[in-house]
């Protein structure tokens, strides 16, 4: 499951061994799209195995 907008992605990650790698790639994607540093991108746990990655101004 994935829901995308220009500055946010919600992604369900089923494989627990790929969480870190997947989140790092999604953070990089949002940072690139928003034109910001990776440190300006937030990751929240929004449900079971579901993460929302977004640029702070996208809230």
Task: Describe the structure concisely.
The protein is of the alpha+beta class. The chain contains one helix and four strands, in the order ββαββ. It is globular.
Structure description:
With 59 residues, the protein is an alpha+beta fold. It has one domain. It has one helix and four strands. It has a four-stranded antiparallel β-sheet. It is globular, with a radius of gyration of 11 Å. The protein starts with a strand and ends with a strand.
Number of helices: 1
Structural class: alpha+beta
Secondary-structure element order, as H and E?
EEHEE
Principal-axis shape equals globular
Strands of the widest sheet, in order across it, are 1-2-4-3
Q: Distance between termini?
A: 21 Å
Low-pLDDT sequence parts: none
Mean pLDDT: 88
Count of beta strands: 4
Q: What is the CA-based Rg, rounded?
A: 11 Å
* Fraction of residues in helix: 25-40%
How many structurally independent domains?
1
Which key phrases capture this entry?
1 helix; alpha+beta; single chain; 59 residues; 4 strands; four-stranded antiparallel beta sheet
List the helices and strands and how they pair.
Blueprint: E1 2-5, E2 8-12, H1 19-34, E3 41-47, E4 50-55
Antiparallel strand pairs: 1-2, 2-4, 3-4
């Amino acid at each position: 499951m994935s829901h995308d907008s220009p500055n946010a992605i919600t992604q369900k990650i089923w494989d627990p061994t790929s969480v870190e790698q997947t989140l790092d790639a999604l953070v990089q994607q949002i940072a690139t799209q928003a034109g910001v540093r990776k440190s300006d991108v937030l990751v929240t746990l929004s449900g079971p195995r579901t993460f929302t990655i977004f640029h702070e101004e996208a809230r």
